[in-house]
Amino acid sequence: MPYSAMIRTRAPFLRRLVLEDRTSMRARFRPFLSSFLAVLVIACGLTARAQACTTFCLRDGGRILFGKNYDWKVGDGMLVVNQRGLARQADLARDKPASWVARYGSVTFNQYGRDFPSGGMNEAGLVIELMWMEGSRYPAPDARPAVDVLQWIQYNLDTHSTVAEVLAADQKVRIAGDVPLHYLVADRRGQVATVELLDGRMVAHTGKDLPVAALTNSTYQESATARQETKARHLAPPEGPGSLARFARAAERVDAFDGRKGDAVAYAFATLDQVAQGSFTQWSIVYEIDRLRVHFRTRDHRPLRTLSLAALDFACGHPVQALRLDAKVQGDVARDLVPYTRQINYDLLRAAMSKTPFLAATPDAEVRRLAAYPEADVCRR
User: Fold this and answer.
1) Which of 369, 355, 375, 366 shows the shortest CA–CA distance to 28?
2) Which helix (H) or strand (E) holds 186?
3) In degrees, to the nearest 5, what angle opens at C-alpha 366 toward C-alphas 115 and 349?
């Protein structure tokens, strides 16, 4: 299906952005986070050749691992070591922005700039990853301060250690956004939750309400119901790139996991391979939550890279560390981390945005504003 036809038939929101004149479009793209939401529509739900983004959590025999495929046409990215003790404020233009101070350091994967992660893990073992989910509807403005859908990830990694704390925080901070997303969240205690925004309120599946810890691009209830119907008919998990098909295949692997046998990290990556979307799968990430290690590989550089959070100094007051995902390194990458700079952020933003249809015309002044945005983070040890 041609790209323009895909937008006409499947994405009215994006169609409006495309048809606006350049001046109006640029106005819609400020602040930057609104622009990135348009990216996520394609990145995790509306690619012409495949639907995308799959997550799951493996729990057995004391092992806790979390897997994520990031599927999108742009592979540029940056790993960021986020420090504890930083005071941050959400980047919102139409809402009362939330402010917070990081209690925990974290490692995040960022494609469109520092402070706007697509996912990551903090030093307490909390992991959060996002996916597209059509039908999400965020809460109306109320007395709570707000964070946008990407900084909600940073906010929770900064301030919470457990799934229960993340869910309870909905009473204090509201998610604001225009593009529908949902999240899979897991912690070092082995607790897992889906977080969805339906009919203007947070809906979470956890404990007995989460029979299998996996998530793709449909509501969790729809996914679990479809899988049960397939099992009731004694059918094999369906093939193909569809959301329900990928959920079913990931769920089978989650159920079959035996943490006492074999290489659990290899099992997690093999599971990601079974739900991969060919050339659209840019990053495959496995978080060893129980051992506080991150493993990842990229489409253009297949050797496995590993980073132990125990090897990192998360104290603020010294340069933040980062690593471009296109760096030709492998194995333990702790020594390959480099001091983060505004130029690194700018180069990433410029490269990623130039390859993204709805961001390619973003004025350089806005790119530079976004590159400088994290410098407002203040160290409060």
Assistant:
1) 366
2) strand 181-186
3) 50
Does position 214 have pLDDT exceeding 60, yes or no? yes
Q: 21: which residues sit within 8 A by CB, 6+ positions away?
A: none
Rounded CA-CA distance 110/118 in Å is 6
pTM score of the predicted model: 0.89
What would the DSSP string read from start to end of 266-287?
HHHHHHHHHT--GGGEEEEEEE
57 pLDDT above the threshold of 90? yes
Report yes or no: 51 and 241 within 8 Å, Cβ to Cβ: yes
| CATH code for the part of the protein at 3-375 | 3.60.60.10
Q: What is the pLDDT of residues 313-372, one digit of tens each?
A: 999 989 999 999 999 999 999 999 999 999 999 999 999 999 988 789 999 999 999 999
Which DSSP state fits 138? P
Helix extents (H) in the chain: 3-10, 12-19, 22-28, 32-43, 151-159, 163-168, 220-232, 243-256, 264-274, 342-354, 364-372
Residues 6+ apart with CB under 8 A from 40: 130, 132, 149, 179, 181
3-class SS of residue 58: strand
* Helix 264-274 vs helix 243-256: crossing angle, to nearest 10: 160
Q: Where are the domains of the chain?
A: 3-375
Percent of the chain at pLDDT above 70?
A: 87
How far apart are the C-alpha atoms of 54 and 370, rounded to whole Å?
28
Higher-pLDDT residue of 279 and 17 is 279
Q: What own/partner pairs with CB < 8 Å and gap ≥ 24 does 242-246 have?
A: 242/51, 243/51, 243/216, 243/217, 243/218, 244/216, 244/218, 246/51, 246/54, 246/216, 246/275
> Residue 376, CB half-sphere, CA atoms under 13 Å: how many?
13
Confidence of residue 125 (pLDDT cuts 50, 70, 90): very high
Query: Residue 216 has which token pair?
Result: 């793709």
pLDDT in tens, 141-195: 999 999 999 999 999 999 999 999 999 999 999 999 887 899 999 999 999 999 9
Tell me how far apart the alpha carbons of residues 237 and 224 are, in angstroms, rounded to a whole number.
12
Partners of residue 76 on adjacent β-strands:
none
**DSSP label at 149?**
T
